[in-house]
Amino acid sequence: MSLLQFYSPPLPHYINSGLMNYSQGFRHVNRHNIKVFDLLVVREGCLYVGEEDRTYEVRAGEALILRPDCHHYGTADCREDGSHYWLHFQTPGPWCSASCHAEAPRERNTTEESAHYSLYNARTFSLRLSQYMPLLQPAKMEELLAQLELLKVNAHLDAVRFKQQMLFQEVLQQLSASVHRERPASQSTACAEQAASFLRAHYREEITTGMLGDCLNFHPVYIARCMNREYGCSPMEYLLRYRIEQSKLLLMQTSFPIARIAEEVGFNQAPYFSSSFMKLEGISPRQYRQRFS
Questions:
Q1: Which residue in 105, 102, 96 sits closest to 123, CA to CA?
Q2: Range 201-233 burial, b when 16+ CB lie within 10 A, else e
Q3: Which residues contact 175 (CB under 8 A, 6 or more apart)?
Q4: What is the largest CA-CA distance in the chain?
């Protein structure tokens, strides 16, 4: 299964959409490098489409996403009357196909300034969509696309354009759900996610790698390998970063002394908290608080 992987923020955004009804003998148009992603959702009949050297037969209840940088063409005439929705979208963020090996950064700053100028460091997350898939809820997808079609007449209004973008995010959720049904999480991914959830839930407590292994029923070395693959850091590094993020909230939202904040987020010693904060943020906790005072 060919996958497209999008890294957000920023999120992919809706551009335009429509409904096409066609008769027997219709053939998909021949196009090169259209600069936008083209989502096709078939309602009736079958659409015969090629992208570069790959060919697809997209039937009712199925969807196909054509890439913006490829050659698309019809591979055969339609053998019966049919109809399909089309939707153009684009992303200003990075994306890749499943074959690419470059890993986008898990975290990045919201500006070119250092991270301590903002309350939060922006974290990327990946959205994986299959290029060709049977839809998990075809009726729900058609309902969303029909709503987008009805909104087009008032798309000159800001409130309507905002509604279009919200509906499109629901379309992406439907596409993503179809992928997850076909591609259940691997054991290593599930292990990393379980470890991260545990660390986030118990960050105020004293945690060791042995304790983590006992709670998850995985060997600590295996957990570390899974987390490095999924998050780019060890469990203890992940825990440290999460504790620092929670401390930034307390520095902003409370007048607690630094020692109490250190204790609240799981540090036994305030000096270690301050040195860890300085290492990750480039300034001390007190200086960080003063920037927002």
A1: 105
A2: eebeeebeeeebbeebebebeebbbbbeebbeb
A3: 39, 63, 65, 129, 130, 133, 135
A4: 75
* Per-residue b or e along 49-64, where b marks 16 or more CB atoms closer than 10 Å to that residue's CB: bbbeeeebebebbbbb
CA dist., res. 240 & res. 238, Å (int)? 5
Distance between CA atoms of residues 254 and 53, nearest Å: 59
- Per DSSP, the residues of 30-76 read PEE--SSEEEEEEEESEEEEEETTEEEEEETTEEEEE-TTSEEEE-S
Task: Render pLDDT for 211-233 as a digit per residue (tens, 0 to 9).
Answer: 999 999 999 999 999 999 988 89
Task: Check: CB of residue 49 under 8 Å from CB of residue 58.
Answer: yes
The pLDDT of residue 181 is above 90? no
Strand-strand pairing, 125-130 and 54-59: unpaired
The residue type of 200 is: R
